[in-house]
Amino acid sequence: MLHTNAEHEALQAARPARQRTSHQGRKLRLEGTRRPCPMCDAQAEIRTSYHVSRTLFETFYQCTNVECGCCFVVNSEIVRLLNPGATPNPKVNIPLSTHVRRDMVRVLLDNAGEAAHEARFTLPVTGDLFAGGADTS
Fold it and tell me: Within 13 Å and on the Cβ side, how many CA atoms surround 71?
């Protein structure tokens, strides 16, 4: 289907213009990596990140607005657990959220029967889930 130049120009003119706001930077491939730039509010993307500790992550961002070019660091920290999980690590001390009913979990653990289980993906951890000190053995 070939068009003449006049037809092609008419088709281009009839096509709605692409909406693009000023200084929004380029589109990012992964939606989860977006964060607004603190200087110009354009989207910033992750350049690199690393673990500072088991609960703290440091992430380096760069603004996608070429006129701004701001680079900044964001610290992300795990502050509370909603569910301790089936294989808690006694070396990591993260408090439970206040909405967790500790007395109810304690009663469930005291009255629960035991069943044979062989861990496939994590090493088994023995010890009391709610013990005050970490097991150092």
Answer: 4
Rg (CA), the chain: 26
Question: 10 Å Cβ neighbour count for 68?
Answer: 18
Angle (nearest 5°) at CA 130 between 128 and 135: 50
CA dist 35 and 57 (Å) reads 16
Q: Which two tokens stand for residue 26?
A: 């380029």
What is the DSSP code (8-state) at residue 135?
P
- How many Cα atoms occupy the beta-carbon half-sphere of 27 within 13 Å? 2
Token pair in block for residue 104: 């109810």
Q: Which of 45, 24, 23, 21 is nearest to 34 (CA)?
A: 45
Q: What is the pLDDT of residues 31-59, one digit of tens each?
A: 567 799 999 999 999 999 999 998 999 99
Give the number of other CB atoms < 10 A from CB of residue 38.
13
Neighbours of 61 (CB within 10 A): 23
Report the predicted TM-score, pTM, of the whole model to 2 decimal places: 0.53
